Each structure stands twice: as C-alpha cells, then as structure tokens.
C-alpha cells in the first residue's frame, strides 16, 4: 500500500456528496436537464446536470482537503499536476441513468505516479459500493460488507463474457470479438461500470470495452486487481490511459482472451 494517500473514509465522503446530486435527479423527469456532447461513433452522447453537479461537489471536497492533488474529471477536464491525481466520472453510464436502469455509478480513481492504486464505484440507488483500499477490494451493500474475489481456475468455455454494447464491434474488425463469443459460455450486454464491479465480485469473468477514456476505467482498475483480476489494454499494456480495454478475473484466462481478440 502506498503511504500518504487519503484513507478510504474520504472516498465514502465523496460518494455521499455525489449521491446528494445524482439521486434526486434519477428517475425524475422534472429535476433532470439533458444535453448532448456528440463524439466519434455516437450521434447522441448525453450529459445531464446530475453529471455536472456531482462532479462539482466531488471537486470542491478534494480541493478543500487535498489542494496539492491534481484532478481529471469527465465534465470539467484537468487541473493541477503532481504525483497524485484523482480521476472522476460522476455518472458513468449516463444512458442507463436516463433509462432508469441502475447499472450506472459514480467512479473515483486515485493515481499515484500514474498508477491506479485506490478506487471506488458507488451505485447509490441500490445502496452498493465497491472499492479498493490499496491492498484489498471490498463490497458494502444491503446484505453487509465483505472482501471481493474474482473467479479463478475455469476454462474459456465456462467463462461469462460482457461488453456494454454490441455497436462498436463492427467498427473494430481488427478486434476479433465474435470468435471470443463463440468460445465462452455466454455473452451479456448493457452492464456499464456495474459489470466491471461484478467481475471483481466473481460473477462475470471477462469484460471487453472499446474506446474508454481514463475516467471510464481508472477507478475500476484497482477494484479488479485487488480482487485478484487483471486489466490491460488490448496489447497487454497498462490501462490507466484508456483505449480498448480487457479485464479478466483469472490472469491465466486473460492471456487466452488477448490471443483470441488479437487474432
């Protein structure tokens, strides 16, 4: 564990502040204002005042308690520099947020010298939190608190595969996703960041995501790694910078997955 970093209690404080902004706007047609910030491959990429206000609340607390820390957030960009940086996605999964489906979450990752060492994913509607404290990954929810552990020692034919949307698959013919689906037990879609948390919890075995930004993955890297899993780019590199990302619960299985995806 890296010393001189915030304790996990501060992460909980941040998620409490974010939830005060997101929950009143969730499943509420009166409280929510929706905008569009088109990006490559997407005609509609929604942003809401839940995203913006939650990030403002998180940033204000970090700046008050750790003014020396840098911050990168989806809505308001990067400020500061230094060896410690917060990576924020106030509402990861704005599409399911708009649909009323509770697979969105607030993501907060902490990088030290460029490496993701702590992180939290909060789903306030289901009252669940998944976090990595620098040593171990944990879950807290309606049924108590316990350590997270990925699933190990299974063959590819037993593995459950997830990707958030099938839409990017035909746009990336060099990534051999279909051969992977043909060798796994089943493929599911639509889980967003919640699916990555389920991988850390041992319910999903492989997650493939296309074109992620650092704020989409930074918080989830330590949650998966400290639960015993592995997260890399498609070429096997470190994932903090985003891109095409592969996560597996079993590091041995991960090598088979990368080989298949790379053809």
Automatic annotation (TrEMBL):
Its EC number is 3.1.3.15. PANTHER family: INOSITOL MONOPHOSPHATASE, INOSITOL-1-MONOPHOSPHATASE-RELATED. This is Histidinol-phosphatase. It comes from Symbiopectobacterium purcellii. The keyword Transport does not apply. Keywords: Hydrolase. It is an enzyme of class 3 (hydrolase). Belongs to the inositol monophosphatase superfamily. The gene is hisN. Its cofactor is Mg(2+). Pfam families: Inositol_P. One of its GO terms (molecular function) is histidinol-phosphatase activity.
């Amino acid at each position: 564990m890296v010393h001189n970093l915030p304790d996990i209690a501060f992460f909980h404080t941040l998620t409490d502040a974010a939830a005060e902004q997101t929950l009143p706007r969730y499943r509420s047609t009166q409280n929510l204002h929706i905008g569009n910030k088109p990006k490559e491959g997407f005609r509609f990429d929604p942003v809401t005042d839940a995203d913006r206000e939650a990030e403002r609340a998180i940033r204000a607390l970090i700046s008050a308690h750790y003014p020396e820390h840098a911050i990168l957030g989806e809505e308001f960009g990067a400020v500061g520099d230094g060896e410690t940086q917060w990576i924020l996605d106030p509402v990861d999964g704005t599409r399911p947020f708009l649909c009323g489906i509770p697979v969105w979450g607030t993501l907060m990752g902490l990088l030290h010298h460029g490496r993701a060492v702590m992180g939290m994913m909060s789903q306030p509607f289901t009252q669940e939190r998944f976090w990595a404290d620098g040593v171990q990954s944990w879950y807290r929810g309606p049924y108590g608190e316990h350590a997270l552990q990925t699933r190990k020692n299974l063959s590819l034919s037993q593995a459950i595969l997830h990707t958030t949307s099938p839409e990017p698959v035909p746009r990336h013919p060099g990534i051999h996703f279909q051969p992977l689906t043909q060798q796994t037990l089943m493929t599911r879609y639509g889980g967003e960041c919640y699916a990555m948390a389920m991988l850390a919890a041992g319910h999903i075995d492989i997650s493939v995501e296309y074109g992620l930004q650092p704020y989409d993955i930074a918080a989830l890297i330590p949650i998966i790694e400290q639960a015993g899993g592995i997260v890399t780019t498609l070429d096997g590199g470190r994932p903090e910078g985003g891109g095409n990302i592969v996560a597996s619960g079993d590091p041995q299985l991960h090598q088979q997955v990368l080989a298949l995806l790379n053809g």
